What we know:
By secondary structure, this protein is mainly beta.
Amino acid sequence: MTTTFTPNRRLVAVALVALLVGSAIGLAAGGVIDAPTATADDPNPDDDGDDPTVSGDDTDDDRDPSIDRFDSSAAFASYLRDAGSSTNYLGGGLDQGAVAVDRMDGVAVEEDVAMEAEESAEVGTGTGATSGNGDAGSAGGPDRYSETNVQEAALDEPDILKTDGRTIYYADRNRYDRHGDTHIIDASEPTTPSKIAELPTNGELLLTEDTVVSFARDRLHGYDVSDPSEPEQTWSTGLDGYIETARLADGDLYLVVADRADPGDPCPIEPLGNDGPEVACTDVHYPTEQTDADTVYTTMRVDPATGEVEDRVSFLGSARTTATYVSENAVYLTYADSPSQAELRLEFLLTDGRELLDEDTVERLERLESYDISDRAKRIEIDAILREWRSGFDREERRSVEREFEEAWTSYAEEHMRQFTRTGVVKVDIDGDLAVSAAGSVPGTPLNQWSMDEHDGHLRIATTVRAPAVDSENDLYVLDGDLETVGEVVGMGVDERIYSVRYEGDTAYVVTFREIDPFHVIDVSDPGNPELQGELKLPGFSTYMHPLGEDRVLGIGEERGNVKAVIFDASDPENPVVEDDAVLDDRWSAVRDSHNAFLIDERHGVFFLPGSEGGHVFAYEDGLERVTTVETDGPALRAMYLEDYLYVFGEAELVVVDETTWEEETYLDLRED
Length: 673
C-alpha cells in the first residue's frame, strides 16, 4: 500500500515563519533601501520587472498568462537564468531550519513518491477509448479486431502492440535482452499465428497504412511494411531530447519533443539532433510572467512515411511540471505559473503580517514592492529589511513575535491557498498550421494529461491544490476556447490528492486518495456551472477508470498492495455505489504503468487485466466474475482480440485463447526464429 508522508503542520508553519522573518544567515549585510540599484546585488538584470502582485482573491489571480516570443538569444538566456535563481525556498531566507518548497506543488513537505510517479512508457499517452474501430474490419481483413486503448478515439497512441487485423507488430520486453526486437506476426489465420520477420528495435510503435514508426530510446525509425515479411527501413532520425508525447491523426504524426535548455548556450535548439530542423531562440514562445522554465517543448507535424517535419512550434516550459494533453484540435501544454517568492512574501507581510511590523518596516516594504527589480533582488532586500527589524528584539520577544507570525501565516495560507500553486495552460492548434492560439491559468497542479479533456469547445482540467501548513484540496475548472475560466468546482477530497480522472461526455469522475478512495461524480453539462453531485468512499484507490456503458465505471487500482478492480454505479449521481469489486491475488499489473495495457471486449462482455504471472479475464455485465486466467511465462504485458480469439502477450511469447470456450488454442515462442 502506498504510504503518504504527512508532516506535523505546526512544524511546517514554524519553519516557514523562520523563512519569512528569520535570521537570514549567510546573507550580505545590506541596509535600508533608498533605491533599488544601491543595494540589489543582482548579476542578472531583470527583464520582466512588471510582475504584478498577487490579488487577495482565493481562486483568481492577477498574473497575466499571456505568451510572447523571445526577441533575441540574450533575452532567452536571461529568462532561463532568472528562472534558475528564483525558486529555492518559499521564504527566501537561509535559516538553518529552512524547509525546501517545490513551487509547482507549493507544499513544504517531503515529496510523496506516489505523487511523483510517472508512466513507465517511453512515450507519454492518455487514457480511455479505442483508436479507430476494431469491429469494423477492413478490406480483405477480419470482421473485428481490437486496437490500442487510447484517450481520444480519433488519435492513436504509441504502444508496444499494434495490428491492422492481419499482421501484428509486438515490441517485446524480454528481461534478459535490454534491447529486444519488434516481432512481426502473420495472423491471417487467427488460430495459427506465425512469426514472419523482426525489426531490430523494441520501442513503442505507431502503425499507419504501410508504415510502422518505432520510438526507440534515442532515435525514431520508419519502416515500410507493405510486405510485412520483408520490412524495409525508410528513414531514421535522432533525438536530442526526449519525446514527451506522440499521436497519429488522419495519417499525420504529431510529436512533442522536450529539450533541456542551457542558458550558457541556449540556441539553436535541435529537437531531432542533426537530422532535423533547428529552432532559433526567436522562434520560442514563453510565458511573459517569469516561470520555472528549463525545457523547450517543440510540437511537430511529421510525415510518418518519410520522417519529414512539415510544421513546428516551440514553447518554453518545465521538465518537472509540464503535462501534455492532445485533442483532435489542439495540443495543451501546462507549466508552473505560481507567483514569485518575493510576491508571496510581500503580499503576506503587507496584509496579514502588517500589524506585527512597525511603521518604518512597513513603509520600506511598500517602497520595495513598487521597485522594478528582479525577484531575486527583492528577496535580498526583504531579508535585509526583516533582519534589521528583528535585531530590535531580545530572545523572548523574538519567540513571541514568531508565534504570532505562525498564527498569521497559517490563517493567510488557508485563505489564499489557491495563490500558492498555479498551472499555466498553453493551447497549440493542430487543425491547420501549428500555432499557439491561447493561454490561461488555473490554481493547483494537474496529475498528468489524464486530468484534461476538451469537450464542446471547452477544456476541463482537474488539479490538486496545495499550500504550506494547509490541507490539500482538489478542484475542477472549465475553460473556454480562449482558456478563460468559466466554471469551477473546488474543495474536493480535503487532505488528499488526485489519483485518476475520467471524463465521459457531460460527467467527470475524479478519484482522490490518502487513506481511503473517494470517488467523486461531477456534472459538467453546464460549463459555467459545474456541480459536484455525489461522492463515495471505499478502501484502496483507482489509478485508471474505464466507462462500461451508461452510468457504470470500472476502476483499476490497488488495495493493500494488491491489484483491485471495482465497478462504480453512478446511475444515481448523488449517491454513487460500488456495484462489485474484486481484489486479486496479484501485486502488479501493466495497467498500473500504462492504460494501453487495458483491453475490453464488448462482444463477449469481458475485460483483460495483465498480471505478474499471466492475465486475468473478468466478465463485467452483471457484477465482476473471473472467467479465466491465461498463464504466461512471467508477466503478461498486453492482449488483443482477433475475431473470437484472445491473444495474450508475455515478455516474448504469445498465447491464443478461444473466447467461446476459454481454452488455450495456440502457443507461440517469439524467441524462436
